[in-house]
Please model this.
Amino acid sequence: MALAVVRDLSEVRTPASPEELEAFETDVLAGFVLARASARLADGTIRGDMSHLEQIRSWFGRPLWDMQPADADACFGRAVRSASQGTRLAYAQSLSTFFHFLEMRYRAELHAMTGTIITCPLDEMNRPRGRGEIGLRIPPTGPEVEMLFAGWREDLTTCRKFVPVARNYTTAKLISLVGLRINEARRLDLNDVRWELGRFGKLHVRFGRGAQGSGPRQRVVPLIKGADRLLRWYIEDLWGYFDDDHTRPGHRYFPPSAATPTALRPAQARTPCAADSARPSMTTCPAGPTGSLRTSCGTSALPSSTATAWTCSRSRNCWGTGKWRPQCGTSTSCKRTSRTPGPPVRNAPPPV
Model:
């Protein structure tokens, strides 16, 4: 049997002219932009990648597919050596992404036009250190989360500022129980807690995360896993220490630290009834929870069955200790005093 020379049946193409290569390079860059946009990347991210590629192209002076590892060594070793680490990482990431795009889309066509085999010039030897690759984020286990909050609860008995620390504990615990985002929990107010909905009550999240310019998306979150008991404890025992008026519309559920807790203020002639501007000289608090109290711990946000079980009266001049006592059916005087208030009581730990 005679042997014959194997002949390539593919199309025989002449080397591309500089004008054709320039037009092809423009088409490749346009395809790269379209591919990144189809992956739903932000316009700012795509503009940043194109800016990095254009600067590398201006320095290199030739199409990027001609870049070899030695050229990358010169670029990152001399041209951008003085740049910050974040800038060098951004250049490297943009260049690697572009070459990955060339390998998947134009590898055969570029080899036919230029005879070049596409290979990324960045490897393990010349890639900038500290590359910003997305690492594997392993969430903590259930026992680890329980250990975190158990230690936090113990710290409440010895911390220097009990009220803000307890507020932070309540916020973090609520986030872990019902799955809120930090900004969603921060923007809650007392009217967002709907105790009458469902078995445990629900949270009306008004400032949920939006997408594609849709604005905040609202949703309703059930108070499961003991979140209802946690919020009741916070309202009844802690919320009144913050200098916030529960009768004002939009009162925040977690007031900021800038609001000085009433129980930690220096000596001054002030009572919880001072929030009622109609009766500035009033010296006696109402007998029931229906009065306008500045530090009534948000009883208006509680169910009627819970609100009627507590009185606005506090032991030790009505605002000294913050310890609530049941309704006794008699009016309790809260005389004005200049006595320095004591710290909040800590005999009621969080229920969860």
